[in-house]
Each structure stands twice: as structure tokens, then as C-alpha cells.
Design brief:
This protein is of the alpha+beta class. It is built from 13 helices and 16 strands. InterPro entries: ACR1-12, ACT-like_dom_sf, ACT_dom.
């Protein structure tokens, strides 16, 4: 492949004089990968780390979206000086896109992310508004914050999970005349974390009276404590400046859910296989993950690395059927690798917890009905009265309509009896509460244009081989053998 072709595929432009210098440095690496050995690649990578000029603006970012190169996926390529991995994945997650493959290279002062994505039904992206949104959001750096819930009060809750807890929480809020506008609830290892966005039911305004907020917090804290959680139950009013899912990961990480034992053991035991090795030649730690594929998997993993203050320098994500294989080259923020066996084990536990928190365990129930004060309290009370445990919930409202999703199991964590589910539906309303299957995102159109990385798990022997493999998968070189 000629330099001009690589330049064209990467979407690099030569109109701006400063950019020419940067792009030539990129292309030197690509040419070396195609024509040189691994030693030469590593030498040039080392040179590039120090040779890139400061003229590349820190907020500058190039995004190219390609629907022609691959038959089954849309390719999103991000070229940037400094890493924005978490933010880029967050943009894709907020659009409910499935990441089939990803190639990430970021070392020193050069950076490249490539994502192969589909919609929830496994189709390529064809909606021009979505494609334009991805480009504009990443290129203008308008990302990273939460959806702004203007005019709402945000509550953060953490505590010990138990059957019926959610119904008690929503009952308290209903008694205080609080209308729940949006909320997300996660449970894991016997712990629960939730962000709840409220407004006063009568005035429709945010709840700002400090005395009322103190009473609400104290009451909810007593509910969360139950009989055996005197110390760890927490409630607080949040400024809601962080992305909601990002904040839930932070809350559960701070709660150390990864160290706890589950009170309710679910029937779906599909723990992620995580291994950590050190690649001492370049001071990397290499993390391999093999698990069931699902929406937002990459986001959950990268959030964990960020919370643990690790930097991802290189990574490859590959999916096949309903399985996913992820490989990350990481370092501490000070440039050192993982230094002890205890630290390795902590990384493994934290990654497994992050993957399990959002796992869709139980029957998915979707509620669509007219919103009203006390709706959530009534619905979740019906769940409790029928011994159904809510493992995850997503609450939202559009104008006057409630659009809620609940994942439920029986009280012991096993699949709920279909007869009980039907009884609950009859109580709440057959037309309002429906049983839904998960979206068919699992590779109905498996990527065939590129070779699979295989079941893998073995650490790559050099940075050169990683760069060569990623560039081969990108179609930028002919071979990496």
C-alpha cells in the first residue's frame, strides 16, 4: 500500500502546514510497519514519542466514518494527539451502538482509535443524523459530562441489596411528594447503587429546601440500612455533573462491591475470565478478558481502568458470536506496570465486578404507561408482593409517559416463574407491562472482512507486533507475519 493510500484512508489532510508535520510522522510508522522488522518499528515508535511537535492543538480531533470498507459494520476512526478513549466509547455507548471490533493505539504523543460498530439489530449505521452527531461530538470535544438534568434534584444511594428494597425507596419518595423523572439502579454482590433525578410533584421545580432534603436523605438512609447495614448505607444530593453510568461505576467501586460476597446468587453464572501479565521489555502490564459480549462492555472495562488510575496505551477488541475477547496494554499514570501479585488480583476482581454490574440477569419487563405520582412505588410493591427481586432498573419519562425497564428474578436469584410474571402483568396491566427479549445484537451479521484474532489470551511479544496486527486489521498494511 502506498503512503498516499494510507493517508487517504486515515482521512489525514495536508491543507494546514502544522498538520503536515504530524501526519508525516504517522506515515513513517506505517511505512516502517510494512517494510521493516519489529526492532525498526519500536525504534520509530520511540522516536515519534518525542518528535511530534507541540503545534497539534490539544483539542483537535479528526473523525472519519467509513461505511464502504466492511460489509457488516460501520468503521469509526479517530485520530488525535492526546487520548480520549473513555469519552469516545461513551459517545458510542450513549447511542446504543454495539462495538464488534476495536483497535486502539496510543503511546507517547500519537493516538489512533478505530471502532467497528452496528446498531442494536446488527445493522450498519445509515442515519445521517447519527453519523453527523458522532463526528461533531468527537471533533468539537462536546462530551464527557452527564446529560444535563436541568430543573431536577439528583440523589445518590448505596447500600445492601434485598428483595423489596426498591419499593421501599420509591414509597418514601412518593410520601414526600417527589416525582421520579429518571433513575438508574444497579445491583452486584449484594450491594445496590442508584442515581435518582427528582422534582417536586406540585410545583414541578427542583427540591432545594435543605431541611426537606435532609429529612429525605435521613429517611432513605434508614431504609438502606435495614437491619445489618449501619455503616455502609449512604445517601447524598449530587451535582449530577458526571455521566450517569460513569458515576454508578464510581459509586460501586468506592463501595468496594468487588470484595463482597453476594447475598442473592443469580442463576446466570458467566463470570469473565481475566488474566494479567507483565511485559517487562516496555514496562506494560497486559490484561486479557474473555467473556460474554454485550452492549457497553468496553465502556465498563475502560471506566474501571480509569477509576483505578491506569492508562490504556494499546488495545484490541474482537467479538465472535456472543463472546468477546479484549486485550489491553496498560501502565500506571506514572508510567510503571503492575508491581505485585496482590495488585494483579485486585485488577482481576475489579474488572470482573465492572462486567457483572450491568449484566442483564433475569426477565426483562418494560413498562409504558401514563406517569403519575406513586407509579414506581405501586409497581415495585407489586414485584415485592410476588417475591420478585429487581436486579437492574432504568427509569425514564417523556412528557407525561413513563418508560421503565426492570430486570427481575425470583427471591433466590433464579429465573422467575412465568405464571408469577403473568400474574404481575395482570395486576399492573397487560397492555402496560410487557415481557421483552433482549435486542438481537449478537452478531447476526458477523464481520467477515477481517481475520479474527482467535480465542487468544497469550501476551503479545512486542509492541511492534501489536502495532503491525492493528494496522493489518485496519487494512493499512498487507501482512503482519
Amino acid at each position: 500500500m502506498q503512503v498516499a493510500e494510507i493517508h487517504e484512508q486515515m482521512g489525514l489532510r495536508r491543507e494546514v502546514a502544522d498538520d503536515v508535520v504530524v501526519n508525516v510522522e504517522y506515515l513513517e510508522v506505517f511505512e516502517a510497519v510494512e517494510g521493516g522488522g519489529e526492532g525498526e518499528i519500536e525504534d520509530i515508535v520511540g522516536e515519534v514519542e518525542y518528535a511530534l511537535p507541540d503545534c497539534f492543538p490539544s483539542t483537535s480531533c479528526r473523525v472519519m466514518i467509513d461505511n464502504a470498507a466492511c460489509s457488516a459494520t460501520t468503521r469509526v476512526m479517530i485520530d488525535r494527539k492526546h487520548g480520549i478513549l473513555l469519552e469516545a466509547v461513551q459517545v458510542l455507548m450513549d447511542l446504543n451502538l454495539s462495538i464488534k471490533k476495536a483497535y486502539i493505539s496510543s503511546d507517547g504523543r500519537w493516538f489512533m482509535d478505530v471502532f467497528h460498530v452496528t446498531d442494536l439489530n446488527g445493522n450498519k449505521l445509515t442515519d445521517e443524523s447519527i453519523l453527523s452527531y458522532i463526528e461533531q461530538t468527537l471533533e468539537t470535544a462536546h462530551y464527557g459530562g452527564s446529560k444535563i438534568f436541568q430543573g431536577l434534584t439528583a440523589l445518590e444511594l448505596t447500600g445492601t441489596d434485598r428483595v423489596g428494597l426498591l419499593s421501599e425507596v420509591f414509597a418514601v419518595l412518593s410520601n414526600f411528594r417527589c416525582n421520579v423523572v429518571e433513575s438508574k439502579v444497579w445491583t452486584h454482590n449484594g450491594r445496590i447503587a442508584s442515581l435518582i433525578y427528582l422534582k417536586d410533584n406540585e410545583s414541578g421545580s427542583p427540591i432545594i429546601d435543605p431541611k426537606k432534603l435532609d429529612i429525605i436523605e435521613a429517611t432513605l438512609r434508614n431504609v438502606l440500612k435495614g437491619d445489618n447495614d449501619i455503616r455502609s448505607a449512604k445517601t447524598s444530593v449530587s451535582l449530577a455533573v458526571t455521566h450517569t453510568e460513569r458515576r454508578l461505576h464510581q459509586m460501586m467501586f468506592a463501595d468496594r462491591d468487588y470484595e463482597r460476597k453476594p447475598i442473592i446468587k443469580t442463576c446466570e453464572d458467566d463470570s469473565a475470565d481475566v488474566s494479567v501479565q507483565n511485559y517487562l521489555q516496555r514496562d506494560y502490564s497486559v490484561v486479557n478478558i474473555h467473556c460474554k459480549d454485550r452492549i457497553n462492555l468496553l465502556f465498563d472495562v475502560v471506566c474501571t481502568f480509569t477509576d483505578m488510575q491506569y492508562v490504556v496505551f494499546h488495545a484490541t477488541v474482537d467479538t465472535s458470536g456472543d463472546r468477546a475477547s479484549l486485550e489491553f496494554f496498560i501502565k500506571h499514570m506514572d508510567g510503571t506496570p503492575i508491581s505485585s501479585e496482590a495488585e494483579k488480583q485486585r485488577v482481576i476482581l475489579c474488572l470482573q465486578a465492572a462486567i457483572e454490574r450491568r449484566a442483564s440477569q433475569g426477565v426483562r419487563l418494560e413498562l409504558c404507561t401514563t406517569d403519575r405520582l406513586g407509579l414506581l412505588a405501586d409497581v415495585t410493591r407489586t414485584f415485592r408482593e410476588n417475591a420478585l427481586n429487581v436486579t437492574r432498573a432504568e427509569i425514564s419519562t417523556t412528557t407525561d409517559t413513563a418508560l421503565n425497564v426492570f430486570y427481575v428474578t425470583d427471591a433466590t436469584g433464579n429465573q422467575a416463574d412465568p405464571k408469577i410474571i403473568e400474574s404481575v402483568r395482570q395486576n399492573i396491566g397487560l397492555s402496560s407491562l410487557k415481557v421483552k427479549e433482549l435486542p438481537m445484537i449478537y452478531h447476526q451479521k458477523a464481520e467477515r472482512d477481517e481475520p479474527s484474532t482467535g480465542p487468544g489470551g497469550a501476551m503479545l511479544l512486542s509492541l511492534g507486533s501489536l502495532v503491525k496486527r492493528n494496522l493489518y486489521n485496519l487494512g493499512l498494511i498487507k501482512s503482519y507475519s
